[in-house]
Amino acid sequence: MKLKKLQLENFRNYKALSFEFPQEKNILILVGLNGKGKTNFLEAIYALSIGRSFRTLINEHLVNWDADYLRIKGEIVQDGEEEVLEVFFSKRPRRQKNFRKNGVNQKNSEYIGNLITVLFHPEDLNMLYLSPSYRRQYLDTLLSQTDKQYLFALTQYRKILKQRNALLSEILKNKLRGGKDTKTLEEDLDTWDLQMADYGTQIIKKRQALVEFISQKIEEIYRQISGLNEEIQIKYSTKFREDFLYELKERRDKDVYRAKTGMGPHLDDLSFYINSLEIDSMASRGEFRTLLLSLKLVEIEFIKEKTSQIPLLLLDDVFSELDEERQKHLTSIIRIHQTIITTTHLENVMDISDISEVIGIEKLG
């Protein structure tokens, strides 16, 4: 899998851009000052891959300030076949978002996985010590790119969760008003519970399998990068035990009282341990960086195993975040992948400049 060409219309600071990637070298280095569009360039590629930004959930923020729409178009080569991918979003006259492959409209769930990317940028550290939502998003993004069944289950689960919470709120309001007959509402809740249990169980089991894969690989990779013989553990935390549907029914009164669903994959979390100590309570910044880099390298292995594809790597100013040993290890990996690197100073990536195409960001226009 390789990205040959990227075209942008009204994406962030790029009014119009057409860029052909070097074919003779795997690595492209974009050099320039902050605020000139380096991260925007990576963001566009990520959005072409995933269908959304890694910096904002608000599509309007991606549209150039004096435009009503944006278009991201990419030509890729996969298994010797050329394909054209396109993401289009308009603010006016009608808000819409479209995905196309070779000129044919696709649903978001069909589109994801056409171009598989692994993103590494400084804010990824948030995943290790901030809200559980960051860690769930990490699992969801990786699994959605590699498993269509997972993506479908996740999409359906989110819809059902919204419907179930609305129904819980309606039941609560009915009871607070003194209403006694909630039988019809309870029957509707039974229907949603059946579907939620089905999709929720699928999501949790696939996440658990992914965490097991990571657990089997990460300790050795961490040791190679750090040179330290540390015990690394990753634990997936969930209230789910054996029977999702039974557990939903057991806690129904609590859910009605709170008007929200109090168990399920939307509340699950990941915990990271070094030598049996949870990382957010004791780790140095160096250990955070090493663990994050290890996770990204395991992510690459997982994608290769599940899809037989080599992912596109997007590295946003990460070399400045790594010491010399970590830089060397990352360099040994990216040599065989198509990689786009951004940096403010070329000296940060001098070790790979001889095998890379180096371009000043101002030349992208």
What does this structure look like?
The chain is an alpha/beta fold and 365 residues long. It folds into 2 domains: 1-116 and 310-365, Rossmann fold; 124-308, Glutathione S-transferase Yfyf (Class Pi), Chain A, domain 2 (Up-down Bundle). Helix content is 44%, strand content 23%. It has 11 helices and 14 strands. It has helices at 38-50, 108-111, 126-129, 132-146, 148-176, 183-226, 244-250, 252-258, 279-282, 285-307, 324-334, and strands spanning 2-11, 14-20, 27-31, 69-78, 81-90, 96-101, 104-106, 117-120, 232-237, 269-274, 277-278, 312-316, 339-343, 356-360. Strands 2-1-4-5-6-7 form a 6-stranded antiparallel β-sheet. Strands 8-12-13-3-14 form a 5-stranded parallel β-sheet, with helices on both faces. A hairpin with a 2-residue loop joins strand 4 (69-78) and strand 5. The longest helix has 44 residues, at 183-226. The two termini are 26 Å apart. The mean pLDDT is 92.
